[in-house]
């Protein structure tokens, strides 16, 4: 099976620096690497809302490169620092951005994330054949 990388221009530098792919097409799915709440310049805001919105914005940017939108996500896993402190805020933003049928979702409390200061990291599986 052939794998095809999805790298928006905004992610080119960081993908090369970290030797990773933001997303990979494989079969009928796209597998997204975990995204944290740093902005497109790499700055990590302290504000939880800004981090959560940045995370979804980066996911949307990757999906846009593949001619898809957030509704194409069929499964997502979110890893949280301080899950209980931020869950209601995170969930309210999630519900602003997704429509029915919602993706399958697992939220996990983590002891730490690779990126210092990150409160959330989200990975997702996307239907490459999504047609709305």
TrEMBL record:
UniProt xrefs under SUPFAM superfamilies: YjgF-like
Pfam families: Ribonuc_L-PSP (PF01042)
Gene3D superfamilies associated with the record: RutC-like
Cross-referenced InterPro entries: RutC-like_sf (IPR035959), YjgF/YER057c/UK114 (IPR006175), YjgH-like (IPR038743)
CC terms in the record's Gene Ontology section: cytosol
Domain of life: Bacteria
PANTHER family: 2-IMINOBUTANOATE/2-IMINOPROPANOATE DEAMINASE RIDA, RUTC FAMILY PROTEIN YJGH
Protein name: Enamine deaminase RidA, house cleaning of reactive enamine intermediates, YjgF/YER057c/UK114 family
GO MF annotation list: deaminase activity
